[in-house]
Write a structure and sequence with these properties.
The protein has strands at residues 15-19, 23-28, 31-36, 45-48, 53-59, 63-68, 71-76. It is an all-beta fold and 79 residues long. The chain has one domain: Thrombin, subunit H (Beta Barrel).
């Protein structure tokens, strides 16, 4: 069965990844936002970068690499 959840204010999402066990990371323009998968109302963490984000990739459960206009940015995301 499919269900639908709408997260207010998250238009223009360019990339999304899931960090185990229960976190979702969105990239929107120059902003990376971490949410709990079961509570998408308020981000747990928001990070502003200096350039446009084009893609995200996860390595393990807490390392994220963002491909930006200026190059690659590695982030250690606590959860």
């Amino acid at each position: 069965m499919l269900s639908k959840t709408i997260t207010p204010g998250r238009s223009g999402i360019r990339s999304i990844i899931i960090l185990v066990p229960d976190h979702v990371l969105y990239a929107n323009s120059q902003t990376v936002s971490l949410y709990k998968a079961i509570n998408t109302g308020t981000p747990v963490l928001t990070i502003e970068l200096d350039s446009e984000i084009h893609a995200l990739a996860a390595h393990g459960t807490s390392t994220v690499v963002a491909a930006t206009t200026l190059g690659l940015v590695a982030l250690n995301v606590p959860h």
